[in-house]
Amino acid sequence: MIIVVSGPGGVGKGTIVDALVQRDDALWLSRSWTTREQRPSEADDAYVFTDSESFEQRIAAGGFLEWTEFLGNYYGTPTPDPGDDRDLVLEIEVDGAQQVKRMSPDALLIFVLPPSRAEQERRLRGRGDVDHKVLARLKKAEEEEPIGRELADHVVVNDDLETTIEEMLEIVRAARAA
Ligand code: 5GP
Question: 36: Cβ–Cβ under 8 A, 6 or more apart, which residues?
């Protein structure tokens, strides 16, 4: 099963997916490639940080399950190892989510929303992005939300982190049992 976790920047997707794979041994998290610069607060293995040339070479070689351009940078999911029988978790934006849904209609898509725009902005600023980047991400979030809601199998509001994680683990268990 492919589980797609999507939602606007600053909603807490990264923290959520880390917790999901820690608590459920049958899940594994794909590590994306990006041409975005690493944030000072970010772990070295948050992404494979790369340049446009290497990214484009990998596109040409068919090495991505999906990829997109988001606010001026490339982001992509490397083609997963077919031998891994755990369920694959992708933390990606809505264009990538649409691509995955087209390819794999059975993929489970969970769209995560912030409790409010104000809280989302507070979380975005907390990551240390400069003002114009925060504003660009808020604008992008407005565009993404209706598409994400439409596409999603489940919409979850990340108000309390622990509740959100439990709710999502339950959604995954129910999908496996179905
Ligand atoms: P950020 O720069 O905040 O880490 O990520 C920006 C957006 O790109 C987020 O919505 C994140 O979920 C998304 N993203 C991260 N990796 C990928 C990927 O491999 N593919 C796609 N389509 N989106 C990604």
Answer: 47, 49, 73, 75
